[in-house]
Design a protein that fits this description.
This protein has 169 residues and is mainly beta. It folds into two domains: 104 residues, Chitinase A, domain 3; 54 residues, Thrombin, subunit H (Beta Barrel). Strands 4, 5, 6, 7 and 8 form a five-stranded antiparallel β-sheet that branches.
Amino acid sequence: MKKTIALLTIIFLSGCITDSTIIEKTTVQSGDSVNVNYTGTLINGTIFDSGSFSFIVGSGQVIAGFDKGVLGMEEGETKTIIIPPTEAYGEYSNVPITAPFDVINSSVFNNGGINADVGILIYLITTNGDQILGRITSIENGTVKIVQEKNHALQGETLVFEITINNIE
């Protein structure tokens, strides 16, 4: 150990190593453009997305928790972050839709060969031709109750990301 320290001291003092050759690690700061590889999973381990992309940290191009999670990371570093719904896509919200789709006779689904199960997402066409996303909330006495799904698919979920910083600019 003493020999190693002595050798490094001699090399440094001889001019073989100068301040300009000491490599400082750059960490991610707000405003940096970064390229990342990532895998996103739900808290139960289900993978919902993975890939590689670039973004400007702090610009609002990604969810807040992802922005915060990369701050201070170094190029080549891999880290796992857990993002609560409040820093991801927000809390889940049940907003009822208006008639005529709030209650539908279950035969509409069965005659079309569609299983009407509680929790499934379905697309509905309004009377003016707009397509809306709905979620079946209950099935009772031959009627299906639906709420309009205005939520992002990951709304209300705690998200886990494994992130690798590929490049910092």
